[in-house]
Design goal:
Distance between the termini of chain A: 52 Å
Number of domains of chain B: 1
Largest interface: A-B, 40 and 36 residues
Number of helices of chain A: 20
Number of helices of chain B: 7
Radius of gyration of chain B: 19 Å
CATH class of the largest domain in chain A: Mainly Alpha
CATH architecture of the largest domain in chain A: Up-down Bundle
CATH superfamily of chain B: Cytochrome c oxidase, subunit III, four-helix bundle
Strand order of the largest sheet of chain B: 1-2
Number of strands of chain A: 6
CATH superfamily of the largest domain in chain A: Cytochrome c oxidase-like, subunit I domain
Order of helices and strands of chain A: HHHEEHHHHHHHHHHHHHHHEHHEEE
CATH class of chain B: Mainly Alpha
Oligomer: heterodimer
Helix content of chain A: 55-70%
Shape of chain A: globular
Largest sheet of chain B: 2 strands, parallel
CATH topology of chain B: Four Helix Bundle (Hemerythrin (Met), subunit A)
Largest sheet of chain A: 2 strands, antiparallel
Bound molecules: protoporphyrin IX containing FE, copper (II) ion
Shape of chain B: elongated
Strand content of chain A: under 5%
Order of helices and strands of chain B: HHHEHHHHE
Strand content of chain B: under 5%
């Protein structure tokens, strides 16, 4: 009977069954250590999560690919944990603790688990063979077909791009769910359901609020990184005319490390959580529960995904361009991807290191950020923001590239100031390295640093302004068409404008001293991130979906998605900024009713739900259209770009015939102009 | 490519560079114990790094225009080279950040460490780079035996460095009152040497792999894997070129 079942139902059945088994197991294990039954404690929840999650994929897909990775991760985590527990027992230290394992055991186990996943899923098989002196075939054969190939290692950049994208959508949903939970608590002043008396995963209500809020931030950031990687992976080789990325195995590796990283992030929720926000400043992060360590590890591992993915993009663009594609004939999205990748290749190391230092401070008592030992907590903030400011450009540059890429298509006009736009991406990326301390005006860093960082930050507005200028000029007198992708492009421009305009006030020291840590900041960065990533991401999905599937997504649902999300989003962030100006602090579970924010907060919560609803509609549309969408195999957007000159869906090895670049990329509406020309293969 | 056109001139170039590096290291040490002029030490380190990058790591090879088919071995080797250098660029941000941490926390003071030990491990690593270079030249000229011998010497020195740092220098530092949880001197010292030692360890693993495969003749024709391991190994040496003065030479001794 099991054999004939729909795999998804079988997966869900397994999820429930093994989730229950895990719960019972965790409850028992926990009982052995602490001698009491903790029904909503961390250990049962963790076992439920790990076993249920793994079993879901087992039911769906059998013991191969991702399932094998997850099984290995669980086993690796336990083995690593027991290993350290054994050593501790020999040393006469406590082997087990409140969270079953002690903190060192969890850290070591989780690390071993993440590595085990990589081996289990098979992402390093070929490298191991190479190390043993065995050659592997260049032309990779697909082992799986249809939907199955997305659940196992594939070297095809198009498959990997979709794997990234779908994982990103999954994480957006999880992060969004967290946001809805804590937004609901905020709808009214005083504590409603995240109360002081409740207890879940070893946390009371306000602690859980902090954990959810922090994880919302980081899960969203990881999902953005994966979403960006998804678009770049899928599209960049197609734009370049390459058969694949420069390093296909590294590409698969980069994607697959993100999976155990996501599991680690979720583990941090149940292992006591943490209350620092996504920025994880010590000294608070040096004291938070063990969930903090899982968070650090998760981000560290996800960082490797970002670093190696960036490396791959740079190498691909430098080495695999089609004939005739000189630097200034590259599509803008390629320029944006290069700029993004330079940042993720280099700066990401610093967030990794800063988190690693806190981990070691907790594990070995190394006093990097502990003033009692001569350490300096402000140093952490420097290391952290040296990545995390440039990272915001990792989030938005590809999105801005998508905007520049699609605008001329739907305005039927050449892109205005191509060279300026191309260079502005690089300009933003480079200046972005020099502004990090604008997050630290109130941190107690040296005062003389404030003014230079203020001016360097204001400088970013120049290359950003260049982009806006070009977009407006491109739209000017264009024959504008507004199918769904274009709606999201236009929405993105307006929203990003709002985000961009609220940046300089934050960068101005005197104003920021008031605005720092208020809801104004929250409104600002949601605007930038939605305008620079979320809107263009949706635009890109609507736009390239037919390329991947040969079908298009439903226009009506797409329009509903847009017209539901956009007004709700404006109300959300403008409301946030309004109460922020009036003094609403961020990262706080409750507020004083006499401040008069209750109505606003209720409105914000409702808007949050509306956005979630619109995204649900999108997700339905996305998955439903894969099989049921209207057929769209030709150049439906009437684009000049090479990938649209061949029928959809794209064949496995991309172009059957190589092409040569013979003109400018964005000369829309100029009669007789051509961007690419396919080269007849000699028979 | 004139640099390594024939084996013996390549060998002698390796020797010359090694002598330069050794003399510069001695100069650096001398400056540290006499006038302690930081600018000179930094300048020496930069010159050493430049020598290593150019003559041992052959950074100029990035510029080779590997004309030819997109799928040819030469073209792919060029792409691999670029990938490796990008990785090293990324990695150097970790080490650079560790230097920032060191100077932020300790300023112009340094932990009390054994100068003799420091000089010995530094010398061992430098000499290992010299032999690594010979191994690479050997395999490029089809000399499998010379390759094997030199790789083994490199390996022994690498392992010697690792044992020297972890097995001798660490206990010694602890005895001097520098331990990880005591204060930032300990924390910085163990973090920097630990991160570096981890890279040495991975380098040793790579060396073992190319030793095994190379001995079986896998790299007689296509020797890029050896080149890659060599570049990585020199990079680890290059990091130490900066870490050594930062930990042992620059600043006044902490009390
Ligand atoms: C002209 C452009 C921009 C300027 C001048 C600017 C300025 C600032 C400043 C000064 C802060 C710190 C405020 C404070 O915490 O007191 C800030 C916060 C933030 N910005 Fe921007 N920003 C700009 C664009 C962006 C973009 C493009 C993004 C992202 C995609 C972004 C994302 C963020 C985020 C996430 C934070 C909050 C970080 C936190 O959690 O503390 N900003 N911005
Ligand atoms: Cu910033």
């Amino acid at each position: 009977m099991m054999k004939n079942m729909n795999p998804v139902w079988r997966g869900l059945l397994f999820l429930v069954l093994f989730g229950l088994v895990g719960y019972a197991l965790g409850l028992g294990v926990d009982f052995l250590v602490v001698r009491s039954l903790r029904f909503s404690g961390s250990v049962p929840s963790l076992f439920t999560l790990l076993l249920g999650f793994t079993a879901f994929f087992f039911g769906l897909f059998g013991y191969r690919g991702i399932t094998r990775g997850l099984v290995w991760q669980v086993v690796g985590t336990l083995l690593g944990g027991f290993f350290v527990a054994g050593i501790r027992a020999i040393m006469g230290l406590s082997a087990f603790g409140d969270f079953f394992f002690t903190e060192p055991s969890w850290v070591f186990g989780a690390f071993v688990g993440a590595i085990s996943f990589i081996f289990g899923v098979g992402a390093v098989d070929d490298w191991v063979k190479w190390a043993r002196g065995i050659d592997t075939p260049e032309e990779h054969e697909e082992h799986y077909h249809g939907w199955e190939k997305y659940f196992a290692v594939s070297l095809d950049h198009k498959v990997i791009g979709i794997q990234y994208t779908v994982t990103a959508l999954l994480l957006i949903s999880i992060g969004g769910l967290f946001a809805l939970i804590f937004r609901t608590e905020l709808a009214q002043s005083s504590l409603q359901f995240l109360t002081l008396d409740m207890k879940l995963f070893g946390q009371n209500g306000p602690q859980l609020y902090n954990t959810l809020m922090s994880l919302h931030g980081m899960i969203m950031i990881v999902s953005i990184l994966l979403g960006v990687a998804g678009i770049m992976n899928y599209v960049v080789p197609l734009l370049l005319g390459a058969q694949d990325m420069a390093f296909p195995r590294l590409n698969a590796f980069s994607f697959w490390v993100a999976v155990p990283a996501s599991v680690l992030l979720l583990m941090s929720l149940v292992l006591g959580g943490f209350d620092t926000g996504w920025t994880a400043y010590p000294p608070l992060s040096a004291r938070a529960p063990v969930g903090m360590q899982m968070f650090f590890l998760g981000v560290f591992v996800a960082g490797w995904s970002s670093i190696l993915g960036g490396l791959n993009i740079v190498a691909t663009v430098l080495r695999m361009r089609a004939k005739g594609m000189t630097a200034f004939r590259m599509p803008i999205l390629v320029w944006a991807s290069i700029a993004t990748s330079i940042i993720s290749l280099t700066a990401t190391q610093l967030i990794g290191l800063s988190f690693q230092l806190v981990m070691f401070q907790r594990l070995f008592g190394m006093g990097f950020f502990d003033p009692a030992k001569g350490g300096n907590p402000v140093l952490f903030q420097h290391l952290f923001w040296f990545y995390s400011h440039p990272a915001v450009y990792v989030f938005v540059l590809p999105g801005l590239g998508v905007i520049s890429e699609l605008l001329p298509v739907f305005s039927r006009k050449p892109l205005f100031g191509y060279k300026w736009i191309a260079m502005s991406s690089l300009g933003i990326a480079l200046v972005g390295f020099l502004v990090w301390a604008h997050h630290m005006f109130t941190s107690g860093m040296n005062e003389y640093l404030r003014v230079p960082f203020m001016y360097s930050t204001l400088l970013v507005a120049i290359p950003t302004g260049v982009k806006f200028f070009s977009w407006v000029a491109t739209l000017w007198k264009g024959k504008i068409e507004t199918p769904t992708p274009m709606l999201f492009v236009l929405g993105g421009i307006v929203v990003f404008l709002l985000g961009g305009l609220t940046g300089p006030p934050n960068a101005t020291v005197s104003v920021d001293l008031h605005l720092h840590d208020t809801y104004f900041i929250v409104g600002h960065f949601h605007d930038t991130i939605f305008g620079g990533f979320v809107f263009p991401f949706f635009a890109a999905l609507y736009y390239w979906f037919p390329k991947a599937t040969g079908r298009r997504m439903n226009e009506t649902l797409g329009k509903i998605h847009f017209w539901l999300m956009t007004p709700a989003f404006f109300a959300l962030t403008l409301g946030m900024m309004r109460i922020g100006l009036l003094g609403m602090r961020r990262r706080i579970v409750d507020y004083d009713p006499t401040m008069g924010f209750d109505t606003y907060h209720l409105m914000l919560t409702v808007m949050g739900y509306l956005i979630a609803l619109s995204v649900l509609i999108f997700i339905y549309n996305f998955f439903n259209s894969i099989n049921n969408g209207e057929k769209a195999e030709g150049n439906i957007w009437n684009s000049r770009s090479p990938e649209w000159q061949v029928p959809s869906p794209m064949p496995t090895h991309n172009y059957d015939q190589p092409f040569e670049v013979v003109g400018e990329p964005y000369d829309y509406g100029l009669a007789g102009s051509k961007y690419v020309q396919f080269i007849e293969k000699k028979k | 490519m004139t640099h390594t056109s024939d084996k013996s001139s390549a060998y002698s170039q390796g020797i010359t560079i090694f002598v330069y590096l050794a003399v510069l290291t001695a100069l650096e040490f001398f400056v540290a114990v006499t006038i302690g002029f930081v600018q000179i030490m930094v300048a020496v380190a930069v010159v050493k790094a430049a020598l290593v990058m150019y003559y041992y790591m052959h950074i100029y090879k990035l510029n080779n225009d590997n004309e030819g088919e997109e799928n040819s071995y030469e073209y792919k080797t060029g792409t691999n080279r670029l990938g490796l250098w990008l990785f090293l660029l990324s990695d150097s941000f970790v080490f650079g950040a560790l230097l920032v941490v060191r100077f932020n926390l300790l300023g112009m003071t340094r932990p009390p460490l054994s100068q003799t030990l420091g000089l010995i491990v530094t010398a061992v690593l430098l000499i290992s780079s010299f032999f690594m270079n010979r191994a690479e030249v050997a395999i490029e000229n089809g000399d499998r035996k010379g390759f094997k011998t030199n790789i083994i010497i490199t390996l022994v020195m690498g392992i010697g460095f690792l044992l020297g740092v972890v097995g001798v220098e660490w206990p010694n530092a602890i005895a001097e009152g520098v331990w990880a949880s005591k204060n930032t001197y300990g924390a910085v010292f163990f973090m920097m040497t630990g991160m570096h030692a981890f890279h040495v360890l991975t380098g040793i693993i790579f060396l073992l792999i190319v030793l095994r495969n190379g001995s079986r003749g896998l790299y007689d024709e296509k020797h890029y894997p050896v080149e890659a391991v060599a570049v990585y190994w020199h990079f680890v040496d290059l990091v130490w070129i900066f870490f050594y003065p930062a930990l042992y030479l620059i600043g006044v001794l902490s009390s």
